[in-house]
């Protein structure tokens, strides 16, 4: 439930309400607006304590949150949540483009891809260091060596870095190197990982599980929020259906549905949702038209030689075309694509 404080509530009154929430064994999540403070109360049936709070000084009214996900719901926070991602605003009017290889393979592959993506208009770099692979015999990622390469390429390009954590123990390590920690589809309901992500203050990119409902995705986000991390990007990356023509089926509906149910930013991954590079650009366009706050796209300079997901990776020039088209679509739906950075170490060089 939400405790809506009156516009005249004093700090002392707010503190008294917070102390009462604590005494009753619930957890408060405070949201301070320009006009008034709203305190989300989570725990086991806080609504039973409604009368206790109703009579406290400074309390205007109590509003139950009907959805099972409380902190993630638009009922709790009506306006879009935004946070900065090194120069661009995630969840604002600007469409954020994250691009890069599925996996970091070596320094040159990463740097070449990053520079090409940035020149085409990407704002952030993706690249897996720890890869969740279906086969234990497939390339598993370069681990911490890849994280070091990501850090070096971030230094050169100025691009914030997105990379995946597969276990709770990896969260602090990834947070040392990355600007956004990805939780992959296979781990969407790994609750100890979600809790560890919630304890970190690094933004989290939470991908929808391949058989997860929208509500299950939001409940997974609720774990992260309830542990204190409010910087979450939700990602539709396709779901398993009976259709076999593509690797997954893009649930384009999920974008407007999520945007109506939650205040959290929502992006689309058309690379995994289609699994074939030929369809990535069309589905990316659909995602932005449907209201996505951004895209995460796999790009590789030599997809035929890629160590993972080559078949769904765009060549840099195809990615550049995609960005040009996305600019037009974004404008048509009242959004825009902010400019990407000029690489810091490249400025002034011929
Ligand atoms: C990835 O981003 O490379 C990845 C493995 O994604 P997903 O978890 O969506 O399959
Ligand atoms: Mn991939």
Keywords:
350 residues; alpha/beta; 11 helices; TIM Barrel; 14 strands; 17% strand; Alpha-Beta Plaits; 2 domains; binds phosphoenolpyruvate
List the helices and strands and how they pair.
Elements: E1 2-5, H1 11-23, E2 27-32, E3 37-42, H2 50-54, E4 59-63, E5 83-85, E6 88-90, E7 96-100, H3 107-120, E8 124-126, H4 144-157, E9 161-164, H5 170-177, E10 180-183, H6 191-199, E11 204-207, H7 214-226, E12 232-236, H8 254-261, E13 266-268, H9 270-274, H10 277-289, E14 294-298, H11 316-332
Parallel strand pairs: 7-8, 7-14, 8-9, 9-10, 10-11, 11-12, 12-13, 13-14
Antiparallel strand pairs: 1-3, 1-4, 2-3, 5-6
Phosphoenolpyruvate (PEP) binds next to loops.
Describe this structure in words.
This protein has eleven helices and 14 strands. It is an alpha/beta fold. The protein has two domains: 2-63, Phospho-2-dehydro-3-deoxyheptonate aldolase, domain 1 (Alpha-Beta Plaits), CATH 3.30.70; 83-340, Aldolase class I (TIM Barrel, Alpha-Beta Barrel). The strands form three sheets. An eight-stranded parallel beta barrel has the order 7-8-9-10-11-12-13-14, surrounded by seven helices. Helix 10 packs parallel to helix 11 (316-332). The protein is elongated and about 65 Å long. The mean pLDDT is 96. The structure holds phosphoenolpyruvate and manganese (II) ion. The site of manganese (II) ion has 5 residues, from loops.
């Amino acid at each position: 439930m939400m405790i809506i404080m009156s516009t005249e509530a004093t700090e002392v009154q707010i503190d008294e309400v917070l102390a009462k929430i604590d005494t009753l064994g619930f957890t408060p999540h405070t949201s301070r607006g320009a006009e008034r403070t709203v305190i989300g109360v989570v725990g086991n049936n806080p609504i039973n304590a409604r009368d206790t709070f109703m009579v406290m000084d400074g309390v205007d009214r109590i509003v139950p949150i009907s959805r099972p996900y409380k902190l993630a719901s638009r009922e709790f926070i009506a306006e879009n949540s935004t946070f900065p991602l090194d120069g661009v605003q995630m969840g604002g009017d600007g469409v954020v483009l994250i691009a890069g290889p599925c996996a970091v393979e070596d320094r040159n592959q990463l740097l070449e891809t990053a520079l090409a993506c940035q020149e085409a208009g990407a704002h952030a770099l993706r690249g897996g260091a720890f890869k969740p692979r279906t086969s234990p015999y497939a390339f598993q990622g370069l681990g911490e060596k890849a994280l070091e390469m990501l850090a070096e390429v971030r230094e050169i390009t100025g691009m914030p870095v997105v990379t995946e954590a597969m276990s709770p123990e990896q969260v602090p390590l990834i947070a040392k190197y990355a600007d956004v920690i990805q939780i992959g589809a296979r781990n969407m309901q790994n609750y100890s990982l979600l809790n560890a992500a919630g304890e970190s203050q690094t933004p989290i990119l939470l991908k929808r599980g391949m058989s997860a409902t929208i509500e299950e995705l939001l409940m997974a986000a609720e774990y992260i929020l309830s542990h204190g991390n409010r910087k979450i990007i939700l990602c539709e990356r396709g779901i398993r259906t009976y259709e076999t023509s593509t690797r997954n089926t893009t649930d384009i509906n999920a974008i407007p549905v999520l945007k109506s149910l939650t205040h959290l930013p929502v992006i689309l991954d058309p690379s995994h949702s289609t699994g074939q590079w030929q369809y990535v650009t069309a589905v990316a366009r659909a995602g932005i038209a449907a209201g996505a706050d951004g895209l995460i796209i796999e790009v590789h300079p030599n997809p035929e030689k890629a160590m993972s997901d080559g078949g769904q990776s765009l060549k840099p020039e195809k990615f550049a075309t995609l960005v040009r088209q996305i600019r037009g679509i974004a404008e048509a739906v009242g959004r825009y694509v902010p400019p990407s950075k000029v690489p810091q170490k490249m400025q002034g060089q011929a």
